[in-house]
Amino acid sequence: MAGVAELSGSVVTLLPSREECQTALVRVTGSTGFKSAPRLVSFLRFIVDAVLSGRSDGLKAYTIAVGALGRSENFNPTTDAIVRVEAGRLRLALTRYYADEGSGEAIVIALPRGGYVPEFRWRHTAVVSSTLDVVAGLEALRRVRHRNSILHAEHREQRLALARNLEAFRVNMRALGETMDRAAAWGGAPAARPQRPGGGVRRSKAVETQDV
Q1: What is the rounded distance in angstroms from the CA atom of residue 104 to the CA atom of residue 154?
Q2: What's the whole-model pTM score?
């Protein structure tokens, strides 16, 4: 039951490995709450070992009572409720463990109501719709990273081009400023009015006639 994945319809749920489940069992049964409850430890070990060994179909009240709780082969589950009672105590003990001492555990062992087959799951379960979705997701991630690298390169080229244009603009502005300074130096004094060859200012004919 425990392994790499569990298929249910079109859903693949990633599961802990056998070794990881066994390690989780050791940690639970070695905790403070379970050390003082040997019957619960025996119950939990029995059902976990059965599941990891592929014998979950045999987990019935009778087999648990005889194999884990010390009842004789004459045990009658219809008249003796010890398995149901201990299963309830075990569920409560597991809930308390993972809420307190085992709050940091990565793997959770749970005993669903209505049966005696334990479940193993990651505290944060990874579920995907199919194995193809995993491949598609990785491919999409690769494409996004590739596109981001291209965009980064394009943006880098754009920034470099902008920097080059700004530098060229500064050079042109400096050249323009120097040209304007030279032009101002050369043409700063106002040009003299043109003179007649004799040195006097040319008078109009009307003025000359009036003088006569």
Answers
A1: 45
A2: 0.56
The full set of domain ranges for the chain reads 5-128, 130-183
SS3 for 37-72, per residue? CHHHHHHHHHHHHHHHCCCHHHCCHHHHHHHCCCCC
pLDDT by residue (tens digit) across 97-111?
Answer: 999 999 999 999 999
Tokens of 75: 């045990």
Secondary structure string (H, E, C) spanning the chain: CCCCEEEECCEEEECCCHHHHHHHHHHHHCCHHHHCCHHHHHHHHHHHHHHHCCCHHHCCHHHHHHHCCCCCCCCCCCCCCHHHHHHHHHHHHHHHHHHCCCCCCCEEEECCCCCCCCEEEECCCCEECCHHHHHHHHHHHHHHHHHHHHHHHHHHHHHHHHHHHHHHHHHHHHHHHHHHHHHHHHCCCCCCCCCCCCCCCCCCHHHHHHHC
The gap from C-alpha 209 to its chain's centroid, in whole angstroms, comes to: 105
